[in-house]
Input
Amino acid sequence: MAGVSLRRRIFLASIYGVIPAALLLAAVAGWLVSAENATVVLQAENSPDGRYRAEIVRADPGVSSNYEYMVRVMPTGVTMLARSLHGLPLAPIYVALDLYREPDKLAVVWSGASEVTIHCEGCGAASPGKARWREITFRYELR
Output
């Protein structure tokens, strides 16, 4: 008799707990991937040693706001799913510059294997990110 109630509890837990959680997780993953598909890479530059990639991207956050421009740095070979998780604290992507209006000119240049310079005309009011991420040093030229 005790075995029947245990099986029933497991069944009920799977129906009311596991399945809705799995559906919710699938919906969030789908939303993140669709948000990444609305992102256009405008420039991509690999580091001289090929370990990292710097990208200038234009993200479309939807009808409620304008395009968002950003410079993000990541290890080369990052999957599409990992790119869609860039907002999470442990994601393999670092956003070095985040702009909420279109810059006149935005470019990234690697000056060494671990040093990247971000040039941005029309970004005088933007606040740059950290000076270092992992072993990469960032230099900002914002005007």
